[in-house]
Amino acid sequence: MAQKKLTKKDIEKLTKDLTLIKRHGWFSLKGTEKKECLSYADEYKQFISTAKTEREVASHITDILKERPEIKFWTFRNKAVCVYKPGKRPAAQGLRIIVSHIDAPRLDLKLNPLYEDQEMAYLKTHYYGGIKKFHWVTRPLALHGVVFLKDGRCVKISIGEDKNDPVLTINDLLPHLASKVQGEKKLREAIPAEKLNVLLGGFPIEGPDDTKEAVKLNCLHILNTTYGITERDLISAELEIVPQGEARDVGIDRAFIGGYGQDDRACAYASLKAIMDSKDVEYANLALFLDKEEIGSDGNTGAKSKCLELALYDIFRLEGTVIEPDTIYKALNASKAISGDVTAGVDPDYMEVYEKRNDALMGYGINLTKYTGSRGKYSANDAHAEFVDWVTRLWDKEGIIWQAGELGRVDEGGGGTVAKYIASLGIDTVDAGPPLLSMHSPFEVAHKLDLYMTYRAYKAFFEA
């Protein structure tokens, strides 16, 4: 049967009604939304500039929530936090849960880090998470963390962030001497992990000329005078080497934010602000901020721990719920969750690893990732169609600018999030967060519109 020839107007209507048209999100902002987007970005910049370790993020969250008595929170080893806001329905009938992680790739000090060589003092490190080691040399670095002294006192350390502080650094070879030692090696081998040694000092202690390791001793003397630290205390210390400096606007139009730890503090900040701002919620809201995601979610502060279940038992007791053997499982099975995590934004300089039809674009809104994993979706959650439809229809209704994408070409690499661990509890779960450029580097880049839409999407989810 011959098909009726369509007019140009008919074609335009069909295109609008049937096809998925991608458009930069900035064109779709209305009224005061552009101003709100930029204001949100400024608040977020301040957050990632000051909270650079999982302990610092956890402390920031709890400090804010102490001023909000209607919101309950639980902390776990000062590295993970569970935040709860009651809804009209008791938690036993199901919750709206957003889970993000607050650890980030970095360099940790080894157990016996301090040594002297060629009359310079250094700190040995062991990298944490997936890094490109060459990113960490010849740049200003800071030292953050905690040290427990002999008398049991905990001393917080932050060296390098104040304008009057010295910074630390890791040296690299000059090009004149590097052709064989580095130039003929593969990129991942050019900077060996055991050479990620942090330059700490170079003045010997004032004393006899034959004093052994006088520079190391001088550094220890400074640490002891300032903080009360001895070398023995470094064994139990948790000290992290992180990039020094504040997050900055990027681009002459200030469209982007560059800074450390945006994977995954972009989602952590969005979920914290969303749960504080959510209103008239039907289902109880729960935001979970976890540690150890970058090294597999293990330990008793990661997604494989029982932090969520422990908090839920307390919540049931607070609400007077009679706890039966299956109460927690029924509540979790009736819940909906977002695994708040970032994804890779398409970088036009490296299109050979991206699939342009199915990867996230910068400035196109929060990205929904139905599945992660690698080698045929191995280790993925792979959200169900019913739940993906529920989430996306909700975002459409609330005017959220969103997109859907994967993480690069099939078999090119892949990655994982906490989604599979949350889903294993019986909760419908999907990944969603902003795309980043230069992910896992000391200076990750996010688009301000995507950050703002992540907050808007999370708030809509909590209020659904």
UniProtKB/TrEMBL annotation:
InterPro entries: Peptidase_M18, Peptidase_M18_dom2. One of its GO terms (molecular function) is zinc ion binding. GO terms for cellular component: cytoplasm. Signal peptide: none annotated. The keyword Hydrolase applies. Transmembrane segments: none annotated. The keyword Zinc applies. It comes from the Bacteria. Gene3D superfamilies: Aminopeptidase i, Domain 2, Zn peptidases. Keywords: Aminopeptidase, Hydrolase, Metal-binding, Metalloprotease, Protease, Zinc. One of its GO terms (biological process) is proteolysis. Its cofactor is Zn(2+). Its EC number is 3.4.11.-. Pfam families: Peptidase_M18 (PF02127). NCBIfam families: PRK02256.1 (NF002600). Belongs to the peptidase M18 family. PANTHER family: ASPARTYL AMINOPEPTIDASE, M18 FAMILY AMINOPEPTIDASE 1-RELATED. This is M18 family aminopeptidase. It comes from Dissulfuribacter thermophilus.
